[in-house]
Structure formats: structure tokens, C-alpha cells
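Morning run. Coffee first, then this:
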Amino acid sequence: MALLGHNGAGKTTTIYMLTGMLHMSKGEASLYGRDVKREIIDVRKEIGLCQQHDVLYDLVSIEEHLLMTMRVRSGVVDIANERKQIKDILTRCQLTEHKDKLVKQCSGGMKRKLSLGMALIGETRTIILDEPTSGLDVESREQMWDLIRTLKESRSIIMSTQHIEEADQLADRVCIMSHGRIINLDTPDEIKRKFGVGYNIYCEAKHQYEDQMDIEQLTKAFDSIRTIFLGRDDL
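And here it is:
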């Protein structure tokens, strides 16, 4: 599910409340039957969170970040399982060849991939992604999209985004938010059917003097444009 909205819509606030990082003033939420307010420690064991801004240590390597996150989440040391999961996450996030790099040596795209990898490690059943592609170039964004698509097969995902294109590409359901309220919750196709307005063509007439504008000629030109581009009269 995608939380779609502008800056200040309440997406990050919602995510912080679901993960116990912010106290709920009203309402209830549960995850796998566990109450977020009263059983947040157990809830967090099921959640992998990728925050909007990378929370990383400059002098710690990519591989060490994954190992640290896994041990904090599981609370036990299982070297064989750790190596297996870390190798899998490095491969999924295309970070294998960079695993020994310190964070301060990584590009912005690599840092976002690492933040996503830290959310995935530990076999959490629910992944919460707060604008996971923010700041990425087109190629890195496409790679991130491909990874998220593969994760949908085995995990529940809640992600926030400001871009309708991203929500349309990735989400099975889209929750449109504004000022902390849900405006609509539906499938991408249904939302486009309800709120899609088709095409708008804007014509601007440029004349030296306004009184010389030929409205009839302008109307004919507009009709020609409509016919050429749309081949229809219901614009």
C-alpha cells in the first residue's frame, strides 16, 4: 500500500505512529494481532523500517551495518544464518562489491539501498518505507522499484511517496492523504477512473495588439489541434 500525498500530508507522522516512534493522540492500530500502543516491543520485531533520511554511521561499513541491524533485531548470534542473510541482502540491493566500503565513501544511491537492506534484514514480515527513492537518479530509482516488486511476493509493504507515478507502478492499493486525513483509499486503476481528468490543452494567442485578435481563426486553430492529437470531439 502506498501513502500518497504532498509535503505535510501526514505520511511520515503516520509511519512514526505505526512504529511507536511517535505517540498516538487518538485511534488504534494493530499488527498481526498485537496492539501498537501496548505491545510495541513485539510489534517492532515484525517491522523493518527504512526512514526518509538515511540513519547511518560514517565510519561503519555496509556489511557491518547489516550485521549490527540483524543482531539488534534478533538478539542472538547465529553466524551461519547471519552470513546467509547478509549475502542475500547484498545481492538483492546490488551492494556486494561495495560491502567493505565505509558509509562516508558511499554515494547517495548506495546509502538509500543500504537503508532499504537494513529494513529487510532479519526476515521481518512487514516493511515500511518512507519515501525510499527520494534523492535517487532515474537508474537507481528503477532498480529500487524492481527490488520492491520482488518483495511484494513474500512481505507486506507500506510505503510513502509524493509521486503518483511511483504509487501507480508499485502499489496494489493507494491511500491519498492531505493534512493528516485520508482522502481516498482504492486501487490505482479505480483512483485514476474516479479522479482522472484526461488532457488539457492550453492555447495562448500572441499578437502585437489585443484588439487584432481573430477569435474565429483562433477557434479553428484549436479545433485542428484537438483533431490532430486526440481525434475526438469530447475534450
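The longest helix spans residues 215-230. Good start to the day.
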